[in-house]
Amino acid sequence: xxxxxxxxxxxxxxxxxxxxxxxxxxxxxxxxxxxxxxxxxxxxxxxxxxxxxxxxxxxxxxxxxxxxxxxxxxxxxxxxxxxxxxxxxxxxxxxxxxxxxxxxxxxxxxxxxxxxxxxxxxxxxxxxxxxxxxxxxxxxxxxxxxxxxxxxxxxxxxxxxxxxxxxxxxxxxxxxxxxxxxxxxxxxxxxxxxxxxxxxxxxxxxxxxxxxxxxxxxxxxxxxxxxxxxxxxxxxxxxxxxxxxxxxxxxxxxxxxxxxxxxxxxxxxxxxxxxxxxxxxxxxxxxxxxxxxxxxxxxxxxxxxxxxxxxxxxxxxxxxxxxxxxxxxxxxxxxxxxxxxxxxxxxxxxxxxxxxxxxxxxxxxxxxxxxxxxxxxxxxxxxxxxxxxxxxxxxxxxxxxxxxxxxxxxxxxxxxxxxxxxxxxxxxxxxxxxxxxxxxxxxxxxxxxxxxxxxxxxxxxxxxxxxxxxxxxxxxxxxxxxxxxxxxxxxxxxxxxxxxxxxxxxxxxxxxxx
Length: 514
Prior knowledge:
- The protein has helices at residues 8-13, 33-40, 50-64, 68-71, 115-120, 129-136, 187-206, 220-232, 263-272, 292-299, 310-321, 344-350, 354-362, 371-380, 386-395, 401-405, 410-415, 418-424, 437-447, 449-463; strands at residues 17-19, 22-30, 74-82, 87-92, 101-105, 108-112, 152-153, 158-162, 168-172, 212-215, 239-244, 276-281, 326-328, 466-468, 486-489.
- By secondary structure, it is α/β, with parallel strands linked by helices.
- The protein starts with 7 loop residues before the first helix and ends in a 25-residue tail after the last strand.
């Protein structure tokens, strides 16, 4: 297993940790390391001490068993060899975690946070045609499927157990669908709780950092992050922020309801908080494909959104040049605090909030349809059954979006099982808007978050800095939902993956293989 960032000299000296019956390789961090250490009677690991975190994880596994990953809070990937039982346990934290790839063969098992390390051990590097085709059809739900034949991935919030004789079992321990109902509370109470969680998450994200950098946009999420950083960093120390802006020759055109440059809003925030030291990069002399090949080869695949990340290289480069040692993001807020709320129309209708529904429809931005057509399209149609929804689209002569933009021919997609695999998991999602907020979160969680891990790791490897996002603050040891699905597998047939093999309700059951 390779360290995905840091000094190569440190990587060469790095060794796995032996603790009791375990040999442990740990990468990442634990936000509740101090609490867990106190409960287990272990020394509190210092931030960044991978060996100490590995010993703590081993102690937790010996004391808590299968509950370990539900009680530890953080972002990590870990491999534990139990020498007495002859098993290898691979695990990743939920929501966000470093990637963890593995190759399992009768004679050996190789696991690494960087897929290229597996090929360096002599494994054949052969592209998985089914993976490429599914991604071209906007189906990223099978998080366990890797980009190469014979190389798999541990899904987020899951444990893969590998044993003698090719035995393999995947267990999902964190399931958003199993979240308990939130207790009733006033809006003010909910806002207060969210603010407290964000502050807690930001303090944890800063632990061990001496000079953090914040990727700052003109939106809500990163602004909330940087202001919590100001609260957490004592004294009058300046906080470096980095913002992408258009090139000087931008013509200023924007669609209604949008803005084309972050600069005025970032500068307004800086005026409110003089400790923010803003840096702007316009990439004026960089092509759209800037360092795309570098990132592609670092990741070893082509996750969704890879081609859109060129603008970030200059930001990371500037942060590293300025001596920053960690990058903070607010990306998870896109699915929570600052999501576009397109499902509000149907939620207002279902909850009989007629006045709010009328106001939302009346003031819908850049929508020239009549009020009745807006009502039907935005509030009523999201509740239509799947078949009826697609029927009304065909009657109205509206093409399926993915059929227009996918590079695959329909005959190929149908003949090779691409369409069937997508339909089995309800993808690609061409319905808009979602009928409620939970539907939107489920869609993103099932079909996007799993691919982001390699992107995050790629930037860390290229620029030698960690990145953390304090906005997914829903994780807690007291409320972590459990997924009861357990799936066993022996082989990897590109035509034999199924998405619903675990009947007991795990939305991430694409980890199952037949």
